[in-house]
Design brief:
Elements (H helix, E strand, L loop, with lengths): L1 E7 L4 E7 L3 E5 L5 H10 L3 E6 L11 H7 L5 E3 L4 H15 L11 E2 L5 E4 L2 E7 L8 E7 L5 E6 L2 E2 L2 E2 L9 H16 L5 E4 L7
Parallel strand pairs: 3-4, 4-5, 5-6, 10-13
Antiparallel strand pairs: 1-2, 2-3, 7-8, 8-9, 9-10, 11-12
Helix pairs in contact: 1-2
């Protein structure tokens, strides 16, 4: 599995493009779907699905361009964050002070323990509430380079954790989620963490 990282948008959100040489999936398209479509075309890749680690606008504003270019595109999100997708356009308008395209709703759900097959690879979904109610992390199998990837969304960063001062956030839930991530690290379940913002870390 090939992994490319693009840092996109006003809030410098990490977008991850995974491919097997023919098909691709995107984790958190940020707010530049046009750029991602150009990359998919340039690399001759077929987009098979988009996975959202959570519903905040800076992670999903690129969805409209992708969904327009790829009809019937599966868009996957934990249902506890559906309300955030519904508010994404208004929230982006408020925080960025500019007009924003509408954001398509998710059409497939993510659940704790779910296995997403991608060619010969798999991603395991782990519910990580706290920053948002429906935040998830995604754990990959070991790659050819011996790395095992954990996509942490905005739960855990190289030098911090996700904020919990939103009305829908939960500090206690975040602590519980961080404890799960610590247990995974101690068990050697992943080697490289890939967060929603900032640098990857071991």
């Amino acid at each position: 599995m090939n992994l490319q990282t693009f840092t996109l948008g006003d809030l410098q959100t990490n977008c991850y493009l995974l491919d097997n040489g023919q098909e691709a999936l995107i984790i958190d398209p940020a707010d530049d779907g046009d750029f991602l479509n150009e990359e998919l075309s340039r690399q001759n890749l077929i987009l098979t699905r988009v996975i959202l680690t959570h519903g905040h606008f800076d992670h999903c504003l690129g969805l409209l361009s992708l969904a327009t270019a790829w009809p019937k595109l599966p868009i996957m999100l934990h249902p506890a964050d559906n309300f955030l997708i519904a508010q994404a356009q208004n929230n982006a308008r408020h925080w960025l002070n500019k007009e924003i395209d509408p954001v398509p709703e998710a059409n497939q759900t993510l659940s704790d323990g779910q296995i997403i097959n991608f060619g010969q690879e798999t991603l395991k979904v782990m519910h990580m509430p706290g920053h948002t109610p429906g935040g998830v992390a995604l754990l990959s199998e070991k790659q050819d380079n011996d790395e095992t990837y954990l996509f942490t969304g905005d739960t855990l960063f190289a030098n911090g954790v996700g904020r919990t001062d939103f009305s829908y956030s939960s500090y206690q839930d975040l602590l519980n989620s961080l404890a799960k991530l610590k247990g995974l690290k101690q068990a050697g379940a992943y080697s490289l963490a890939l967060p929603g913002h900032g640098d990857s870390f071991y």
